[in-house]
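EI: anyone free to look at a 975-residue chain?
SC: sure, send it
EI:
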Amino acid sequence: MKKIILFFLLLLHVILLSAQEVEKNVEDRLRTFFKEYTTNTAKIGTCKLDSFRIDFQKKKLYIFANERFAYQPLRPETVDAIYQHLKQILPGPVNYFDMTLFADGRSIDDLIPNFYRKGKKDKTRLFNNLEYKGNAWVTNASRPYEISRGLNGRHIALWQSHGKYYINNQDKWAWQRPRLFCTSEDMFTQSFILPYLIPMLENAGANVFTPRERDIQKQEVIVDNDGSLSGHGGQGSLYLDVKSRKAHWEQTNLPGFAQLKSIYKEGDNPFLDGTARFANTEKKKDKAFAEWIPNIPETGEYAVYVSYQTLPNSVSDAKYIVFHNGGVSEFKVNQQIGGGTWVYLGTFTFDKGKNDYGMVILSNESKQKGVVCADAVRFGGGMGNIARGGQISGLPRYLEGARYSAQWAGMPYSVYSGSKGTNDMNDDINVRSRSVNYLAGKSIFNPSEEGLGVPFEMSMALHSDAGFSLEDEIIGTLGIYTTDFNNEKLNAGTDRYASRDLSDILITQVNNDIRSTLKPDWIRRSMWNRNYSETRLPAVPSTIVELLSHQNFADMQLGHDPNFKFIVGRALYKAILQYVSSQHGKDYVVQPLPVSHFAVRFGKKKNTLELSWKGVDDPLEPTAKPREYIVYTRIGRGGFDNGVRVSSPSYTVKTEPGIVYSFKVTAVNQGGESFPSEILAAYKAKRERERVLIVNGFDRISGPAVINTPDAAGFDITQDPGVPYLYNISLCGAQQNFNRKNAGKGLGSSGSEYEGMKIVGNTFDYPFIHGKAIQAAGDYSFVSCSNEAVESGLVTLENYPIVDYILGLEKEDNSVIPGQNIYYKTFSSPMQRALTSYCKSGGNLLVSGAYVGSDMNSTQGNREFTQNILKYRYGNSFQTADGNIAIQGLGRTFQVPRLPNEQAYPVTAPDCILAMSPAFPVMTYTDGNVSAAVAYQGNDYRTFVMGFPFESIKTEADRTAIMASVLQFLSKRNK
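SC: here you go
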């Protein structure tokens, strides 16, 4: 018996010793695995083994890695590969056990976002029963297409980081981030959110809220039933309400908006200072209505905001009608939610002054029985008017922090000033989330908090980060989310790891799209699960996207480029679409890319125009196919109308002689609407003498000139400030420190001279400017087309006696994005062939552009084209220190702007071009008397080439006179 017991004791000892050896072996191999673990999907740093546990009885292995292992994007195939590799490296019998690897508190299987899962979803992270059934906050009833697989009826909150704020302990206003590489993070992220991401989301049908002011219009007009500082309605504006037989307007028993002062102090709330009006609804049209007629200080684009009170019997389809320069647009506003703040309808063009075609009307017409409420209407973003320490910022409101916009928007004091006025920086950080929570309070996504009931279902903050590389390596993109709060639940009970899903999808899409189009070695950094206010406080899934490092030269080379901004904006929009659709279990379709090859021709029938274009497929997104198109029309100097939907890529429009018509086209599908095409113009003279074809070759958008040498790095906006898409609000001033040795400690420091300036870029509307000058010359009709339409042979130049080729600031631009190089060439090879054929067939050609010489000076073939066909050669770039460039010729002296400004794009260094005999100079730059334009008067054909853009001539009178002289010169051969 003793022998048997001894045997079993020895056997147990061997087993224990064997188990210990196995555990030691497993530990060593796991430590090596994590230490050596790398992934090409993200830059996550060195991973470590925290602990592990082997259950020999149940044959299970539990592995616990450090947090870094969760920084990577995990997909089903990634997880399978990790487990497969672990089984290969671990000893038997453990390699046959069931394994579970944990990181960041969850198994790596759990860290796969629902969107990427092939099978079972994690329902705790989905919006299972959170399906908003009511009307959207705002619906554009004039939209000529339906969105069934986009974001229609969804409510999205997002914001650009920071903004100017008051430093309490220093008694001054300042940016929250430094001025580096000609910008500051406070301004830089705006240039992604405002021109790109918000329009894309709205084109997909979403209601978008941003806590910072979204309108870059510096003017502001408020029309209110309570009057304002300077008379009833304010500044000559007019409010009136008109009763019907059954309905009349009364004052509500709740406070409304009133502007009682021009400057507001801490704690002031303009939405508690006035009154509001209400009327019972009627089902028939043209009944009772309220009307707001603003006295607009200057012609331009103005955001229109309405306000109202949510009353017990408010309707969800209050009918607002906006009369603007392009016509009439109708909106339905759900007044059952969102009362007592500014509610954005849209942005429209209004003429200066008080006009009956520029106003907002609220009708009491409704399908529902109840009331509509009328309070103030605001036109324009305006200037900051919140005083801190007795001083205002002096900047447009859109450049200020969200704290001040929130106060102006009627948010409760606790929302925008949690510190009770002692720490504006902290308040500004927190108010972004708290504004969303207040708006969403009592909605299905935030049922536990008081608020306005707007069903916001996610939020995203876009930031840029610090960090630099001495080797010009990309720092890249980081995602941040928070789970360790409120028992890892969002306010509607959703698992907070829904925020990790959102972060992963956003970072993945941004990384994939940048790598696929512009920068194959773009860096995806980590996904941090950390305690940040903007990801902790929101009641809904939320994330911070740290897009790139504003401190790193390599990142900012891309960051300043509008092509990059479009790609990032589209990637963020696609990711939000994917996330929201996945949360609701819906299919989605991505909105199309802009159309190309746009052309306008004279129609076969009298007084008609034929428009044609091509839809563009997106190689990155198979669903983004054009299904239909919208043609928008502008008459004269008005605004664009609401558009006409057409099923094919062509459209015939009837016109009246003597009026300039302009057109732009978008592509649409079930997911929404693309960005617009360039704008083309056409005109039929009442007594036509000759026809002109305007070819728009100015497609370029770009960042500023890059300085990149072994000793210097940065951006020289004095040499070339770049060409923004439409406008640039991100520049602070010229870079002052280019010394690479100062990387991370002064490199990139910049001035402040452009802060608050809306710098004009490429508006893609220059055929209209040229066309107006042609119209003024008398008896000339014109149509226009894109340069792609000519290069592809869709438009034949020989059909037109005169061709006007617009080149603006077009030039090769390979300093940042080599792939864009050929696209921005002034005279591509196909265009050279087309123009050569046109000239040799007896054509008459006007060319204008800032780089028509320098851009064609790099090869012998290009030089031969300009010298032999167009009859000029490149001299040099014209340089001057003056703010404007003076030019004389054709009996006039005129100017083009050299510095960034708010009226026209700057021409920093136009070309001096020299005549090739028998051509002759016709214009000179007055400073130095060097040639600015050349004309060729041959028996075979004629050319007139300007080394500066015609549309940049500052006054319309000068443009009209110069165009008349040019047309007279080009027309003489044809008589």
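EI: DSSP finds 16 helices and 50 strands in the chain.
SC: 👍
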